[in-house]
Amino acid sequence: MEETLPFTIQLYFPPMEVTILENSEGSFICEAEANPPAHITWSRIDLPWPQSAVREGAVLRLKEMTPDLNGLYQCEASNQHGSKQQQLCVYVAVASGNCTACWVLFSLLFILSVAAVAAAGYLYKSGTIQWSGDRQLVPTISLPPEEEQVL
């Protein structure tokens, strides 16, 4: 007589493929297939961890998109059978169209220039400043084209 016995096979393995996915804008999730489930840690390679980056388990959240976030980040998935890493390169460029300080400085310089021209015009009309109408002619010599030297 044949007897069938129930059994369960439990396979244990280290993290296989580690994947970094963009969870939402400025948020990345690190995933790995492993048994038992992998413990996920985020680190930054060759630079100190920036204040505007937050590690929450498998999630890396970039709070403010500033150039200090630029660099290489590493997600490591590990369990008692092994570990595997994946890297994420972050590059935040400064938007040239959004420079409030530049526009304020430009506006101030423009207003000062207009005020200086208006003040000079007022002083000229009131007689405080006078332009001399005398002009002196400066003698010049014109050479025929064949005698001109090309530099």
Automatic annotation (TrEMBL):
The chain crosses the membrane at residues 103-124. PROSITE patterns: IG_LIKE. GO terms for biological process: heterophilic cell-cell adhesion via plasma membrane cell adhesion molecules; homophilic cell adhesion via plasma membrane adhesion molecules. GO terms for cellular component: adherens junction; membrane. Residues 6-91 form the Ig-like domain. It holds the Pfam family Ig_3. It comes from the Eukaryota. It is found in: Membrane. Keywords: Disulfide bond, Glycoprotein, Membrane, Repeat, Signal, Transmembrane, Transmembrane helix. The keyword Signal applies. PANTHER family: NECTIN-1 ISOFORM X1-RELATED, NECTIN-RELATED. This is Ig-like domain-containing protein.
